Amino acid sequence: MGAAQHTAHAGHDDHSHGHDDHHGDVGPHSSFSGYMVGFVLSIILTAIPFWLVMAKVIADRNTAVLVLGAFAVVQILVHMVCFLHMKGKVEGGWTLLSTIFTVVFVAIAISGTLWVMFHMNANMMPGHPTPTPPTQTESGAAAGHHTP
To answer: Residue 63: how many CA atoms within 13 Å on its side-chain side?
Structure first.
């Protein structure tokens, strides 16, 4: 029985050894310095927008939203490259391509939803007036109550 277990174990090793041998893969490899660069960039890309808001550097709200959004996009890209190792060369570019597809799909879904929500009120039953609630004097008169 010990020989049968040894044979099955040896056969299992031969079978798995052929499939788990990935010496030719060009996958994500990173070093401590790569992670530290991403960490420092993340700290900087968080501190600058924080300072911009707390010191009220940008007075116009729309400009502030655009600048903070730009910092957010840059920080997302730093995270994708430094921590998730998404580059055009990894897996033949399919990881980056699927990420771009997901971002485009989500952007279309969100913008379409917002477009429908903002225009729904204007496009729904355009010929019907909006009812107004009765005032207190009208409701008392309608009920037959007269004030002296």
So the answer is: 6
Using CA atoms, how far apart are residues 23 and 26, in angstroms rounded to an integer? 9
With a CB cutoff of 8 Å and minimum separation 6, the contacts of 35 are 82, 83
What is the per-residue pLDDT across 85-105, written as a single tens digit (0 to 9) for each?
A: 877 776 777 777 888 898 899
Nearest partner of 45 among 65, 24, 70, 66, judged by Cα: 70
- The closest alpha carbon to 79, from 42, 112, 121, 131, belongs to 42
Q: Is the pTM of this model over 0.70?
A: no
pLDDT at 144: 57
**Model pLDDT for residues 10-63, shown as the tens digit of each residue:** 444 444 444 544 455 555 567 888 899 999 999 999 999 999 999 999 999 999
Helix (H) or strand (E) holding 81: helix 61-82
Angle in degrees, CA 24, 28, 34, rounded to 5? 135
**Number of residues that this document lists for the chain:** 148
SS3 86: coil
Of 89, 82, 93, the C-alpha closest to 31 is 82
